[in-house]
Design goal:
Elements (H helix, E strand, L loop, with lengths): L1 H18 L4 E5 L3 E3 L4 E7 L4 E4 L6 E16 L2 E14 L3 E5 L3 E4 L2 E4 L3 E6 L11 H8 E7 L10 E9 L4 E9 L6 E6 L6 E6 L2 E15 L3 E5 L3 E13 L5 E11 L3 E5 L16 E9 L3 E2 L5 E11 L15 E3 L3 E9 L2 E14 L3 E5 L3 E6 L4 E6 L3 E5 L50 H29 L1 H16 L1 H5 L4 H20 L8 H10 L4 H16 L7 H21 L1
Parallel strand pairs: 2-10, 22-30
Antiparallel strand pairs: 1-3, 3-6, 4-8, 5-6, 7-10, 8-9, 11-12, 12-16, 13-18, 14-16, 15-16, 17-20, 18-19, 21-23, 23-26, 24-26, 25-26, 27-30, 28-29
Helix pairs in contact: 4-9, 6-8, 6-9, 7-8, 8-9
Protein name: BatD family protein
Keywords: Membrane, Signal, Transmembrane, Transmembrane helix
InterPro entries: BatD (IPR025738)
């Protein structure tokens, strides 16, 4: 009998131990999602815990949470407990990411979740729901890629403009680019947009407002059908609701919408084979060609510069200039390449050049042969060849080269070894002239009198500076004001950085107000209530006007989550917060 009782007791203890096992897990709504979708992450535990520490969520932006939910239940006398921390995440880019470990302390022990791998793909289509604010926003905002030419030639410039269209029924408060196309088979150049300006336009026959958010010039480097990847942005949209405020105005709800421009296919044509010149190096556009020299006559050993230059509109940075050819009696150095090119939506324009330094060794007349430059003009769809004129370099003085014979028929030269004489490079200065420096005595010199009189000037200045510092140190009230202003700026620095984004600004402002009270008065998060703040301010003799302004700022931070706020109102709240913190700190 005793043995049976012992077995029963052991069995019950084993059941209780199994039931008392602590579980702390991470659950996700999906492990693969598009860059325009959202991810829900739940951290679930079956026992109450403390010091919950979430992961950093690399590759995502937190758009909701953390929210908490607690569940208690009793089934057949058995207690069941569950507590969940929930986050809503929005991907910031494509790729593979890991939701790292979260941790919590339960009964003195630290527990961690298992990392979860998430794959973020390009934008995906979403199901339609006429009552969903996200769907309403998606139907009223559109990102469109406007391509200048869908059938360009190889190396012909095309432009792409990304325009964000918005229906007049919704308002766009902010947007951020989260996924930029790579344009793998193109040479690309982004054009600076500058300040975003709202313009009127039409989209599918309807009146829309639009903003030009990105401009890019493309030069296709491959023929055939090439795909332009979509640009994806995150837009904050104020969607009208059926609710009205106290004054009868329509209440708007802010939603975040990820919009993609959609893929575009460009059919790149090959350059014609018929009529292609032998010296063609890939230049496409409309160009002018010239070869110039800075001297017509010089002496042996002096130098001249010959410049090969192409100017016009086209793919100036994507082809090579023809090489200069000169007789062997002219010593030629490697050319200096220069580019003066501007890029606009029409493509590249300007000029490129190679400047050669030439040094003749012997007396005589030396021709610089004609050069040819060929390019394809996409407007006429024909090749063109431009020729330079022949230049003759006249070397007036110097040794005579009897070992080189010039064929006047074809300008070919029999190359001979160059013999350098003492007059070579006479145009370069290789000698220097030196002159003695007159010695002088230090006594009664300018430096002597300067060092003698300097203390008489420096000492009064030092005394005045020290006196000024003492005045500042003794100015108790002034120091309080300066210290209060410095503290206000310190706590509001993050809010000022986020003035461009309503959500980030008011989140930072709310944190700064909370951190200030925590640092000065020891008010914790659980005690952060308006009544508590009013009581503490009253005990510390803070003026009622200052207290009301502080409470009003807190209310603005709370209302900003649900109502549209203008940039002017955000600036006013920031300035008010700086004045309020400064005023409170003077009293405290």
């Amino acid at each position: 009998m005793k043995l049976k009782n012992s077995i029963a007791i052991l069995f019950l203890l084993a059941v209780q131990l199994v039931a008392a096992q602590v579980e702390f897990t991470a659950k996700v709504s999906k492990k693969k999602l598009g860059v325009n979708e959202r991810l829900r992450v739940d951290f679930v535990m079956n026992e109450e815990g403390d010091n919950f520490n979430p992961p950093s969520f690399t590759g995502f932006r937190v758009v909701g949470g953390p929210s908490q939910s607690v569940s208690h239940s009793w089934v057949n006398g058995k207690r069941s407990f569950s507590k969940t921390y929930t986050y809503m995440l929005s991907p910031t880019k494509r790729g593979k990411f890991t939701i790292k470990q979260a941790s919590i302390e339960i009964n003195g022990e630290t527990y961690k979740t298992i990392p979860v791998k998430i794959e973020v793909t390009s934008a995906v289509s979403k199901p339609k729901d006429a009552n969903n604010p996200d769907y309403i926003a998606s139907e009223n905002i559109h990102l469109v890629a406007e391509v200048s030419k869908a059938n360009p030639y190889l190396n012909e410039a095309i432009s792409i403009e990304y325009r964000l269209y918005a229906s007049p029924s919704v308002n766009i408060s902010n947007f951020n680019i989260i996924d930029v196309p790579k344009f793998t088979d193109f040479w690309t150049q982004d054009i600076r947009v500058g300040q975003y300006k709202v313009a009127r336009g039409t989209y599918k026959g309807q009146d829309y407002n639009y903003v030009l958010i990105r401009k890019t010039v493309l030069y296709p480097q491959k023929t055939g059908k090439l795909t332009l990847e979509p640009l994806t942005i995150d837009v904050s949209v104020d969607v009208p609701t059926n609710r009205r405020d106290f004054f009868g105005g329509r209440v708007y709800q802010t939603v975040h919408q990820k919009v993609a421009a959609g893929k575009r296919v460009i059919n790149v044509k090959e350059l014609p084979v018929a009529g292609k010149p032998a010296g063609f190096t890939g230049a496409v556009g409309e160009f002018e060609f010239d070869v110039t020299t800075n001297k017509k006559a010089l002496k042996a050993g002096e130098s001249l510069q010959a410049t090969v230059k192409v100017s016009g509109n086209g793919n100036l940075k994507l082809f090579n200039l023809p090489e200069l050819t000169v007789p062997s009696s002219l010593e030629v150095y490697e050319p200096e390449h220069k580019e003066q090119v501007k890029t606009s939506l029409a493509g590249m324009s300007g000029n490129i050049s190679d400047t050669y330094t030439i040094v003749p060794q012997y007396k005589g007349n030396y021709p610089i042969s004609k050069l040819s430059f060929s390019f394809f003009n996409p407007k006429t769809e024909k090749y063109q060849t431009l020729n330079s004129i022949e230049h003759v370099v006249e070397v007036l003085t110097g040794p005579t080269n009897t070992n080189s014979v010039t064929n006047t028929t074809n300008n070919n030269v029999v190359k001979q070894n160059v013999i350098t004489n003492n007059t070579s490079f006479r145009s370069f200065h290789t000698t220097a002239s030196f002159s003695a420096i007159k010695s002088s005595h230090f006594f009664k010199s300018t430096l002597f009198w300067t060092l003698l009189l300097a203390p008489l000037i420096v000492i009064p200045v030092v005394v005045l500076i020290a006196k000024k510092k003492n005045q500042i140190a003794n100015d108790v009230q002034g120091n309080k004001v300066r210290k209060a202003d410095k503290l206000a700026k310190k706590y509001l620095s993050d809010a000022k950085k986020n003035l461009h984004s309503k959500d980030l600004f008011y989140e930072s402002l709310h944190k700064s107000l909370h951190n200030y009270l925590k640092a000065k008065l020891g008010i914790e998060t659980s005690e952060f209530s308006k009544d508590k703040i009013k009581n503490i301010f009253a005990l510390n003799k803070v003026e009622d006007q200052t207290t009301n302004s502080f409470i009003e700022l807190i209310e603005n931070c709370e209302l900003a989550r649900f109502t549209p706020i203008s940039s002017d109102a955000m600036q006013q709240d920031y300035e008010k917060a700086a004045l309020v913190i400064s005023a409170i700190d003077k009293v405290l």
